[in-house]
Design a protein that fits this description.
Length: 571
């Protein structure tokens, strides 16, 4: 028989959530009712889940409450290990890297046409995004495990160094292939930023406060995305696009110095229980890394994504390369499953996690949000460059309403979760908000867009901001604390995968419709076959062709671009 006082404490905790506990309406995919409760010890390493509704109190039966040494016997949460002032200093030290890396994302969105056109290869401009995302996909899965073994701090510093080196190579690149290589290196580093910053905050703060701290990071990230486009466009119009990348290198040097000084060690986990903390050998640490699993996962995903990017553009969908790539990707992923199941001592991604329905749903939400977000960031500046003949600066500035909506959505989401502990309704609302935005773009962005109609992208950014905060908390609340790093790595992996798919499909749809609708328009203008072929070639190669084309031809090209972008929004 359990101590009556313990049972009474259990009932009180069930009815009176503390400031360090979090409650949720229900399992994300469950129709049953209940409350999710979280408790944190000094390391925030204990959590507990029951099912119920947020509007009604969780009820623990007397039989459950009287069972000793079981999950129903909830201990009062202890005081958090780190003060809010200390956590704030850590977050501030992370902001420079977050701001600059997000500014880089929108900077490329606003200047990709200028960069590719300088090398007379606008048709391949999407590779400036795709190469970055492919590199992120290939390296994403390993950072969570490496940070568990070597600590968050050193791995984050390595990521900063990779990103800065890639930016330097882009700035001095003499061909589009060299620029793309720089994007690959930068993407390899950037893939660790999100997951490592999120894990650092999760390590330091109670889970109920994680959304609030992440919302501050999201505001700075959003500010970076909002300023990156105009700044990048302005630099491209004045001193040239190269300095927009070269200038990031010293900024990241400062970010590395601050993180080295401020971040706590957040020590790694020993390889075995026989090793005392801090005494394990370096080679034993390295042996814990599932490099084979990471390689098979990254290579398999890349092989499956490659046909999506090149199919219908570089090669026909019936080309043998398409089938071979799909086959190789399938085989590699099968080998990955076998490796994780039977070979890996510490899997890079434990497959048992996929039995968690809430985790799978979080991954799907993040994947679709990534696809929609990058597609919008690609198409919006291009629309205003084509339809309004806007400069790079102005075209990039048109992303500002979306990123403001993103920041507001992230802040409100963090406040809501902190006060109520509920996040399921937020995720539903986020999806509806994004759908509304894309529907308005399809219906109203037809070439003559006024300032009010340019704000139709706000709901899309607002929904993305809500989703980014809520999904991470939903994921962390649904798993065991020991799986936080690998589960978070998976969450941040599916977003670039979705972004690659969304970007490739949107670009393919836009270019396909552009070609298909432009040819009949040029025929009506009386152009012959050779002239039509040349116009189509120039139209898909570089945007500034509109400044050189005869007025009636330029009008036809603009109309076809708008048709293509409408299909892109629909994707």
């Amino acid at each position: 028989m359990a101590d009556p006082s313990a049972a009474e404490t259990t009932r009180l905790l069930a009815h009176e959530p503390s400031s360090d506990a979090s409650s949720e309406t229900s399992s994300l995919v469950s129709t049953s009712t209940g409350t999710l409760s979280l408790e944190n010890d000094s390391s925030h390493q204990q959590q507990r889940r029951e099912y119920g509704t947020c509007s009604s109190q969780a009820v623990i039966s007397d039989e459950e409450a009287n069972k000793p040494n079981e999950q129903a016997a909830i201990k009062p949460p202890e005081q958090q290990k780190y003060s809010n002032a200390f956590i704030a200093r850590v977050v501030i030290s992370l902001l420079i890297g977050q701001f600059t890396s997000n500014a880089d994302a929108s900077l490329v969105m606003a200047t990709h046409s200028v960069i590719a056109s300088e090398f007379y290869d606008f048709e391949d401009s999407s590779w400036l995004f795709i190469s970055f995302m492919l590199a992120a996909v290939a390296t994403q899965s390993i950072y969570g495990k490496l940070s568990d073994i070597y600590g968050r701090k050193i791995i984050l510093l390595i990521c900063f160094g990779l990103f800065a080196g890639g930016c330097a190579l882009i700035g001095v690149g003499q061909s589009l292939s060299q620029v793309i290589l720089g994007r690959v290196i930068s993407g390899s580093g950037a893939s660790g930023f999100g997951v490592l910053c999120a894990l650092i905050i999760t390590d330091l703060a109670p889970l109920r406060d994680v959304a609030s701290w992440n919302s501050y990071m999201n505001v700075i990230s959003t500010l970076g995305r909002s300023l990156g486009g105009p700044i990048g466009g302005w630099l491209a119009d004045t001193v040239g696009w190269r300095w927009s990348f070269l200038g990031q290198t010293p900024i990241f040097a400062v970010a590395m110095l601050l993180c080295y000084i401020v971040l706590p060690p957040l020590t790694s986990t020993p390889t075995t229980a026989n090793h005392e903390e801090g005494t394990e050998l370096k080679d034993s640490r390295l042996a814990r890394v599932d490099f084979l699993g990471a390689f098979l996962l990254g290579a398999g995903v890349l092989a499956l994504l490659l046909p999506i990017e090149i199919g219908g553009q570089k090669v026909a969908w019936t080309h043998p390369l398409i089938y071979v790539s799909f086959a190789i990707g399938t085989v590699l992923l099968i080998l990955f499953v076998l490796t994780e199941s039977y070979v890996a001592r510490e899997p890079i991604f434990p497959l048992r996690l996929l039995r968690n329905r809430d985790l799978v749903l979080c991954y799907l939400i993040n994947c679709f949000q990534g696809a929609a977000q990058l597609s919008m960031m690609f198409s919006v500046p291009l629309y205003f460059q084509v339809a309004g003949r806007s400069s790079n600066t102005v075209a990039g500035a048109h992303l500002f309403p979306a990123v403001v909506g993103n920041a507001v959505g992230g802040i409100l989401s963090g406040i809501w979760i902190h006060r109520t502990g509920c996040y399921k309704a937020l995720l539903i609302f986020a999806g509806a908000s994004a759908i509304l935005s894309y529907a308005l773009l399809i219906l109203r962005w037809n070439g003559d867009t006024n300032w009010a109609e340019s704000l139709y992208i706000v709901p899309g950014g607002f929904g993305t901001g809500i989703s980014m905060s809520a999904v991470f908390v939903a994921l962390q609340a649904s798993i065991d604390p020991s799986d936080r790093a690998v589960a978070a790595s998976g969450l941040f992996l599916v977003m670039p995968v979705g972004a690659i798919i969304g970007m490739a499909l949107s670009s393919a749809a836009m270019l396909s419709v552009l070609r298909r609708t432009l040819i009949p328009r040029l025929v009506e203008l009386g152009l012959n076959g050779l002239q039509i072929s040349e116009v189509v070639k120039q139209a898909v190669a570089r945007v500034d062709y509109l400044d050189e084309a005869p007025p009636r031809v330029a009008k036809a090209v603009v109309e076809s671009y708008i048709d293509g972008l409408e299909y892109s929004h629909g994707m």
